[in-house]
Fold:
Amino acid sequence: MSKFGVLVMGPAGAGKSTFCAALISQLRSNRRSSIYVNLDPAATDFVYEPDVDIKDLISLDDVMEEMGLGPNGGLIYCFEFLMRNLDFLTDPLETVSDEYLIIIDMPGQIELYTHVPIVPQLVQHLSRGSLNINLCAAYLLEATFTVDRPKFFAGTLSAMSAMLMLEMPHVNILSKMDLVKGTLGRKDMKRFIDPDAALLEDDPADDVTFDTPGNDREAPSKADNLMGGSSFKRLNRAVAQLIDDYSMVSFLKLDVQDEDSVGAVLSYIDDCIQFHEAQEPKEPMDDVEMA
Ligand SMILES: Nc1nc2c(ncn2[C@@H]2O[C@H](COP(=O)(O)OP(=O)(O)OP(=O)(O)O)[C@@H](O)[C@H]2O)c(=O)[nH]1
Ligand SMILES: [Mg+2]
Structure:
């Protein structure tokens, strides 16, 4: 029996948990079922109670206290512990049928996606062996990053790094679109949706000059040049060029308040994992309970 799932990832505060809740609402209103798996050991408030919660396996607070670790080190420890106790995920997910969408809410610590190979190992476990879940990654980035173009390209690079590292079907999503409504025209927004390296050439932020008398704009060692000097610009251009050369990243727009927007993202995810192809054809009256 096939299983279907989505792994929701992205930097801290990108709107991952809010998106998971919006997905669950959308599925419910379409009479579809979901299993919500929380893998963020620091998460506390949920719109929908998780069906599987990493906090039932290990507590981040306990780890930080007993191991003397900070929040980021503690999180890596929690994931290493999870990898040694994968039955915690296998047991509840093994019996899930192909009608369900398994929604996995990940933590926002970026080092988890870029520095350590834990997430690729987790993906392998979920998508092979006894679970064999058709899994798609949803990588969220806040649309407000478009205001700061170097930051936008840094975020896009993190999305691309996750794509290369995980080698799985992947949708990238610009979340919190409501916050940038009216600030960018359609044409400009298109250049962020399919990231265009030339965005750095005509960055309005370049018109603002931070120059102070006697400042050498070339010297990377000067504090004033750190986020505005020519070395910083060259670095950003190289990052944008790399993204352009790979030509892998494009974004879907998401406004969680708008059901149609959530529905559109869900149908991309469904297509990626071929959810509908696996469903049994239903008779028109199948869903109607007979009195
Ligand atoms: N305006 C607006 N705010 C949003 C949206 N999505 C999330 N937020 C807010 O952004 C903040 C972070 O949202 P979360 O869903 O907790 O983000 P997260 O990615 O799960 O955060 P971490 O798990 O801490 O990494 C919360 O205050 C949300 O209310 C959105 O689409 N629009
Ligand atoms: Mg969260």
Remarks:
- The radius of gyration is 21 Å.
